Amino acid sequence: MEVRAVLPPLLAAGGWAMRFNNPGGGAFTLGPRDAREIRPVLLSGRDFSAAELADAGATTISVLVLAEGIVVGGLSFVIDPTLDAPAVEYAPCPGCTPSEPEPDEGCDDDKPKPAPKPQPKPRCCCEPCIDDRCCPPPAPCCGKCREVPCKDRDDNKQGCDD
Q1: Hey, which bits of the chain come out as E strands?
Q2: One domain, residues 121 and 71
Q3: How many domains does the chain have?
């Protein structure tokens, strides 16, 4: 596998570069159904202004993933000339400061934090669920329903008696 960064001309001409801070860097072997975490690091070059970026046209950093020379995936990062500060996507880890040059050295604030999972509303114990993997456990029994599924009942009924 090969991971290759393609920088826009403005960045490439200004000495910017991207390296991959993971085992194997940009080239490694990957077996069937194996996975590898890729950690791109953008190395700064010459500063540029928002006006230069807007005039440059192409503002997308592309990261291509190739298998035997064939593109099989990738990511695109668009540089936004309207931002006046780096976008904050998550809180830094405890003890980390934004001035640390390499987050990979003893700091874990460059890893994305998983979004909190929405908590589903409790369902009534007699409310049907298509797939139990997606449903929360039922609420305590309302007292008006029969909790035994119809296939196990003599009267072949299920649900509330209202």
Answers
A1: 2-6, 17-20, 40-43, 60-67, 70-78, 145-146, 159-160
A2: no
A3: 2
